[in-house]
Amino acid sequence: MIMQRITIDHRKPGSLRHPEKANRPDNPIQRKPDWIRVKAPNSPVYQETRKLMRDNRLVTVCEEAACPNIGECWSQRHATMMIMGEICTRACSFCNVTTGMPKALDADEPQRVAEAVAKLGLRHVVITSVDRDDLADGGALHFAQTIARIRDASPTTTIEILTPDFLRKPGALEVVVKAKPDVFNHNIETVPRLYPSIRPGARYFQSVRLLDDVKALDPSIFTKSGVMLGLGEEKMEVAQVMDDFRIADVDFITMGQYLQPTPKHAGVAKFVTPDEFEEYARVARAKGFLQVSASPLTRSSYHADSDFAALREARQNRLGLDPLQSEKQ
User: Is 313 exposed, middle or buried, given 0-12, 13-18 or 19+ CB atoms closer than 10 A?
Assistant: First the structure.
């Protein structure tokens, strides 16, 4: 298979995508093992999906985060749309999204997203965003408006959101939960010990509390969170994160290999083997998650549509409900 690294930069020539990282020492990018190689995207459907994103002036995390699964997902008309622009107010050392001062929100964006979802005929859509610490509500109302427009344009589509932590944004979470997404995802990303170097603008227990609060506000919403492996975490630390998730009643955990975007980003401490991922998955299933996805190429929205169907079925089986009752839970 042909391996391809996809780098997208929407900023003007000569500008820096990550100005805050420019003076950091380089971390050499290691050669990836065979189990992480992916095919270069080249299918006609991939090109159609790409054109639809351009025609609707939409940003996707698939491109901005240099996701290795873009070829597969776009060839199946799956794309994770990133709202509120492509510039993030945070500077996480693992992330390839541009850092800087974002532009004002585009009031037409929720409608454009909804139109793209309808044109693609999506059964399930994932909507994420950059961090918008510059906004009083962190972008909560924009999320709610996007959910509402998708409901209007495509009533049968199930909606998964992947949100920021809304740190120091009182009332923001309540706005998003009231819009009733089917899945509320917020990624922890790594173990608490690594937060100062990997996710310095965030707070681990704030993120866990956010997921716990979603369930307290609306128990019918599925909750989901993800962890990157290969950053230097220990197995017992990952197990503790799983326990914290279960205390917060998180339904779905994803675990994937961290891949270093550029020499200025955090280096890969280890390439975790497929067998090790399967071991993590066994531990997670034993701890009681409704759904577990753990593999080197697992990402938050990878196979999100089929995973949602499995998640809903798992809840149905656990509660002993028939399918019609399950749809209402």
Answer: middle
